[in-house]
Amino acid sequence: MGWSAVGEIAPEPKCVLLGVPHTSVVDFVVAWAFYTSIGGTPNIMIKKEFFFWPMGILLRKMGAVPVDRSKGASVAMHSIQTMQKAEKMHLAIAPEGTRKKTERWKMGFLTIARLCNVPIYLGYFDYGTKRVGKGVRFMPTDNPKEDLKKIQAHYAALNLKGRKPNSYSCGNVEPKLIEEDIDTEP
Questions:
Q1: Distance (Å, rounded) from C-alpha 20 to C-alpha 5?
Q2: Residue pLDDT, tens place only, 121-167
Q3: For the range 168-172, what are the long-range contacts, defined as Cβ-Cβ under 8 Å and sequence gap of 24 or more?
Q4: Which of 38, 83, 137, 157 is an S-S bond match for 181, by CB 3.0 to 4.6 Å?
Q5: 17 has which bridge partners?
Q6: Any idea which fold 4-167 has?
Q7: What DSSP string runs through the chain?
Q8: What are phi and psi of 58, to 5 degrees?
Q9: 41 Cβ contact partners less than 8 Å away, ≥ 6 residues apart
Q10: Which tens digit of pLDDT belongs to each residue from 4-44?
Q11: Inter-residue contact 144 to 157 (CB < 8 Å)
Q12: What value, to the nearest 5°, has the Cα angle with vertex 136 and ends 134 and 140?
């Protein structure tokens, strides 16, 4: 597909992998192809209704985990419970929560990572350069609002281009790269 993979799989058995920018359903294909090409298995939460035969078999092979939203449990709580039980889980999440332009990102990924005591990797796919990577490592603190500002500022500094460029926003933050736990990636 002409993309360059940057970096390696996350070394920890459990982590949260962000996929930014999320402007198209094609982003899933690019991110999944990248992570599997470097030897990883990304896990994504998908509502249980999609796990019918034969689709369920394919989704599970791809690392998908069914979520039952009918019992009033949030996806974040289900993700926390699933991650705590798992021996290995690299949970892939699009923090924007939608493919449409939004200034307000969802914060569930921070809650999941903090309560499971796992790192977050600031994964990216840039349609401008056709580079995709797991990004830098970030450990959440007890201040999710500040963490989100730092994460959005990091993404703003990367000047990423989405498949649909007008559908991507990091919010109103001053661009700044996160310097702690920097990998060798841009």
A1: 15
A2: 999 989 999 999 999 999 999 999 999 999 999 999 999 998 887 87
A3: 168/21, 168/22, 168/23, 168/96, 168/101, 169/101, 169/102, 169/103, 171/103, 171/104, 171/105, 172/103
A4: 137
A5: 92, 121
A6: Rossmann fold (3.40.50)
A7: ---EEES---SSSEEEEE-B---STHHHHHHHHHHHHTT--EEEEEEGGG--TTHHHHHHHTTEEEE--TTS--HHHHHHHHHHH-SSEEEEE-TT-SSS--SS---HHHHHHHHHT--EE--EEETTTTEEE---EE---S-HHHHHHHHHHHHHHHT---SSGGG----S-------TT--S--
A8: -60, -45
A9: 35, 63, 90
A10: 889 899 999 999 999 999 888 788 788 888 899 999 999 98
A11: no
A12: 110
Neighbours of 27 (CB within 10 A): 21
Strand order of the sheet with strand 137-138? 64-67, 42-47, 89-93, 14-18, 120-121, 137-138
pLDDT of residue 67: 78
Q: How far is Cα 109 from Cα 49, in angstroms, rounded to an integer?
A: 22
pTM: 0.86
73 CB-near residues (< 8 Å, 6+ apart): none
